[in-house]
């Protein structure tokens, strides 16, 4: 029986993001797995709306950061300002001290600014003026990225890409969904009228439950075989790291939880593998992302025992 919190959230979200049920479920799995989500697509297909929808329906404190070429790290983390009354510097937290962060068009900012998210995403804390400040829990970053061939973009470095558990693409809606979208009310107005369907405490319960789901030894063997296959594939420059393997298991646990199961099956791993691997793997020689067909062929070459 599907998880009732997940069912309520996905049903409500699918009324706002039309025709993208699978992508919504992938985004929710990433959130439940305590990962971070990278959405890459052309402008105008609903990337920002998806982030707003998740924040609204989960009741999470939300901040949107519009990345531009002149954005500075202090604009994200915060800045210390001298207080004349106390004759001391006082730290003013930046927008990163929220529960759900939308890093909009992250590849329009310079690498220095992009790196300001690194510690926050990995360690869930920020260091400022020699002090370590914890971030709220839950903490979830959704970053949108424009295609690299568009003007004014800075490719994300491998270290930054590896911080994202999943990468998804929304794509254009089908004809029926697009017609409903064109004839319906403004998405922003619908969002404002929507109350949360779960609480942050409910989400934390889901995250803890997902972490406790059983993964059998043969399934661990299967994940190891997939990782090894990426490392020995002649077309792939560098294979998946152990961190990617841990992320794949976390995402598979979350997918199983949403399905209402207390254990992970090979189909969970196979569903999540392309979304965990695609942004981490590049072709040997030219450095282009590995095509989806190559990932599918690689996955099919690894037997489930």
Automatic annotation (TrEMBL):
It comes from the Bacteria. One of its GO terms (molecular function) is ATP binding. Residues 33-174 form the AAA+ ATPase domain. Keywords: ATP-binding, Nucleotide-binding. Belongs to the MoxR family. PANTHER family: METHANOL DEHYDROGENASE REGULATOR (PTHR42759:SF5), MOXR FAMILY PROTEIN (PTHR42759). This is AAA family ATPase. It comes from Thauera propionica.
């Amino acid at each position: 029986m599907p998880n009732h919190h997940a069912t309520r959230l996905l049903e409500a979200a699918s009324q706002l993001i039309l025709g993208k049920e699978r992508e919504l479920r992938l985004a929710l799995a990433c959130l439940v797995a305590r990962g971070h989500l990278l959405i890459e697509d052309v402008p105008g297909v609903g990337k920002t709306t998806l982030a707003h929808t998740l924040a609204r329906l989960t009741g999470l404190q939300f901040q949107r950061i519009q990345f531009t070429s002149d954005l500075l790290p202090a604009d994200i983390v915060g800045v210390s300002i001298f207080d004349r009354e106390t004759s001391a510097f006082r730290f003013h937290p930046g927008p990163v001290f929220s529960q759900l962060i939308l890093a909009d068009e992250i590849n329009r900012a310079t690498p220095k600014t992009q790196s300001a998210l690194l510690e926050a995403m990995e360690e869930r804390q920020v260091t400022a003026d020699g002090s370590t400040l914890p971030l709220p829990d839950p903490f979830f970053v959704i970053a949108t990225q424009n295609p690299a061939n568009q003007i004014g973009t800075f490719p994300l470095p491998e270290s930054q890409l590896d911080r994202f558990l999943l990468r998804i693409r929304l794509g254009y809606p089908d004809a029926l969904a697009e017609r409903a979208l064109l004839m319906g009310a403004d998405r922003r107005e619908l969002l404002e009228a929507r109350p949360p369907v779960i609480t942050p405490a409910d989400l934390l319960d889901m995250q803890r439950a997902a972490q406790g789901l059983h993964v059998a030894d043969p399934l661990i063997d299967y994940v190891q075989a997939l990782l090894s296959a990426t490392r020995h594939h002649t077309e792939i420059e560098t294979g998946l790291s152990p961190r990617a393997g841990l992320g794949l298991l976390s995402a598979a646990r979350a997918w199983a939880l949403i399905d209402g199961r207390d254990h992970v099956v090979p189909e969970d791993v196979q569903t999540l593998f392309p979304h965990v691997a695609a942004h981490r793997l590049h072709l040997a020689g030219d450095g282009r992302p590995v095509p989806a067909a190559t990932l599918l062929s690689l996955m099919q070459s690894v037997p489930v025992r």
